[in-house]
Amino acid sequence: xxxxxxxxxxxxxxxxxxxxxxxxxxxxxxxxxxxxxxxxxxxxxxxxxxxxxxxxxxxxxxxxxxxxxxxxxxxxxxxxxxxxxxxxxxxxxxxxxxxxxxxxxxxxxxxxxxxxxxxxxxxxxxxxxxxxxxxxxxxxxxxxxxxxxxxxxxxxxxxxxxxxxxxxxxxxxxxxxxxxxxxxxxxxxxxxxxxxxxxxxxxxxxxxxxxxxxxxxxxxxxxxxxxxxxxxxxxxxxxxxxxxxxxxxxxxxxxxxxxxxxxxxxxxxxxxxxxxxxxxxxxxxxxxxxxxxxxxxxxxxxxxxxxxxxxxxxxxxxxxxxxxxxxxxxxxxxxxxxxxxxxxxxxxxxxxxxxxxxxxxxxxxxxxxxxxxxxxxxxxxxxxxxxxxxxxxxxxxxxxxxxxxxxxxxxxxxxxxxxxxxxxxxxxxxxxxxxxxxxxxxxxxxxxxxxxxxxxxxxxxxxxxxxxxxxxxxxxxxxxxxxxxxxxxxxxxxxxxxxxxxxxxxxxxxxxxx
Length: 514
Fold this sequence. Notes:
five-stranded antiparallel beta sheet; 30% helix; Rossmann fold; alpha/beta
């Protein structure tokens, strides 16, 4: 497909429906949908949304569990000229409310009104039922005419989605990503990894995480198949591999912890998966020990380490493995993707050279538009290129520390601030501290992170009981932000500036544990 001609992702669906109308686009254990059906349903949903809300380029929330219908809703919203916002149905209601208050959505699409056993309402916008969005009889000519008028107003810089990540102030941040960025990303991924209509993606990550973007849009770009893998299977590695064989999955893009579970349980010794040809990973550090186990069983597969934040669509650096690594040796995060640039800046403000540690910046086609309804945080992260002031050149400041190795590849070092990657998810430790600070009988709280064990440790001052803190946090935070360890301390140590000495706490509580 001609990248220049693609203005919005619905053109991917139209192209796939024309060439391969009966190919299955999305499949889970309960349903599946062909490209012909996907286009029909997306257009019906888009027409219904356009009838219910006025204007375009407005946020429409999808509050549904991970399923075929959820994906169909995404493209229905895109068809209406608006942008989708996928929210975790298992998230604490208080956090959902914070997102909705920041977003001010035009509508919320639900399936049956009951999400994961919870009734979620929001009286400030339209509440739409998924089934009703395409069940009404409407003249096809009327639908086509209305959607054609809408698409005539759309451009590739219009938002396609907003994904919310952890925010240091206690309020989640919504990263805005345009059609243009997703199209550029899908085109690059398809060229680089040779995706075509034979690809079968085994989807592991939730749709409210940026890693799902490659699965979804590489699928529709190539008229391929996305197979949703049941979450429970990732607790049973042998059954997981059997499932991949049963569904003919040949491409996976998983967080390293999911790959490590399979390796650690020696599942590959019992179940061969000869059909796997592309194995991609991102979201956290991939340990060489577990990676080597995969490579020993599937030596002919393509392996690639991908790296990047939600704010740049998904990734900006990649490394296709081309050599062996010793256990414990860091796997590089690689070089910039096509039409992307990356550079590191030292504390002195200079561009980092080989062996020097610097903060990573990105510029290029994948970079998002900023944070929704948050001008201040947008200005802090999307900044003028610090290496020059000759012309406006907005880049994304990641907060990640990197080095360049002898192969001219970037290697991940750590975080500049307290933002971490935990269980494949991006977490602001400040958000956990903010939530814990509201707990009764808790005076102060500090979070530290053990990257070796992937543990969040909450240190608190006060009379609160540990069990009460956990129960309190479960009402406010998603599961992956609940601390793994909680300790009461007598008093918070202070540094010469009068601030809590986090480095001392880090050294004290991690000594001997790693």
